[in-house]
Amino acid sequence: MTDMSPLTITTRDAPTGPVLEITGDLDHETSPELRHAIDRLTLARGQLLVLDLAGLRFCDSSGITLLLAARNLAIEAGVDTVLAAVPANTARVLGIVGLDQVFAFYPDTRAATAAHPPTAVIADTTPRGTGSRADQVES
Length: 139
Fold this sequence. Notes:
CATH topology: Transcription Regulator spoIIAA
Structural class: alpha/beta
CATH architecture: 2-Layer Sandwich
Low-confidence stretches: 121-139
Number of helices: 4
Order of helices and strands: EEHEEHEHEH
Strand content: 15-25%
Number of domains: 1
Shape: globular
Number of strands: 6
């Protein structure tokens, strides 16, 4: 019998965007918890989603699938996704399947957020209805 570590997911906000701290064993049994956390994320274009894996003890193919699902959700929202504090055993597996070419890896969340300064949302100040022919609707 293996010594399983319960999965804990903590979501917090950084100036760059949300950080998911994933601790414990991420496998077929626990992956629905991460799926739920991912589905609850509110993402805004230009943010950075950090998946902090410092406390991850184990990750199987279900976990890898969810890391990709988080990335796909982020891409749809115009958000970058990075991995922070990836344990050596997980980094090795991610490298074998080529995901070290998909995700940027950082030594910790602080380094990840420092490398991606917050993006200010700039309001569109282009005047509308300037009277040009392009702004007029033909009747």
